[in-house]
Amino acid sequence: MRRIAISVAASTMTLSLAGCGVLNATGDGASASPSKGDDITVALLLPEKANTRYDKFDYPIIRDKVAELTGKKGRVEYANANADASRQASQMQKMIDEKVDLIMIDAVDSHAIAPEVKRAKDAGIPVIAYDRLAEGPIDAYVSFDNELVGEVQGRTLLEALGSNADTSAKVVMVNGSPTDPNAKQFKEGALSELNGKVTIAASYDTTDWKPELAESEMAKAIGAIGKNNIAGVYAANDGMAAGVIKALKAVGVTNLPPVTGQDAELDAVQRILAGEQYMSVYKAYPDEAEAAAQMAVAKVQGKDIQFDALTQDKVDSPTTKSIPSKLIQPVALTKGTIKSTVIADGIYTAGDICTAKYRAACAAIGLK
Predict the structure, then answer these.
(1) How far apart are CA 311 and CA 325, in angstroms?
(2) What's the rounded Cα separation, in Å, for the pair 359 and 272?
């Protein structure tokens, strides 16, 4: 169950704290008994490479922010598990053996990684769960409000269905991986919007978020329901949305039903422009990654006031209650919000999006 107490808009929290002098505080309260100076090592363990965000956004933003906060003396040691939980466990053990100052982990399997989290704790190494809520005695958590992500997806899908949103409308759900706690929250959030308003005609939990599995699941749904009887598709992220759309096209569907997504990947933004995918969820990765870096540095350096200011929410995991957390708000990305989200935040330029294939679609919304 979600237990949060958000007191400040997430998109402005960092600026507000800085404006109040908290993030750069140098008084006794903010810097009391620091456990380490600027020469720190933060281990960053990210889960997979199928989603381009991890290598393109999360890692470089965290690396650069840690360097900025430590006068370029701090460093980030990075490893990506490529969707292999055993590999990630080995990577984490290696970081423990190397006696890094803090481990930041986006778990491939949130339950399976719990023993390594405990080993880190026993070794005196704090652990921050990043993006996905790992089990075990973690010290903090930073992510997006995941149930709200699902609510945004479900609500936007209903908006796309318009007057067709009733219990006769058959919706297929292609959910995320059962080993990812975020996927469960996305699903719960979406169902809170969809239940009672449409019929969930088929639902799948997709191992490791694999687009090719989403494609085969969608093919099964088409076979069971009929290609012309599917009003909409809840796809939990953009990679799987691509698989869903591929399956629909393979059986000759030209008037595609609205399909959701998440992560605002470049391909998805272009599909939205072309009218193939209805929406994605934009999550401000710079806000999440910078907050995580700030939390890591404050934790290692013993700056409790800074750390507390950055973790004003509370979240429960299956093993740990009231975890200090920061939950950032997601935004629906549709054709009408491309400019105000990924363009405004510098995630992509118009040149990135408006390649020759999409130039006319860009011109239609005034994107040049």
Answers:
(1) 4
(2) 13
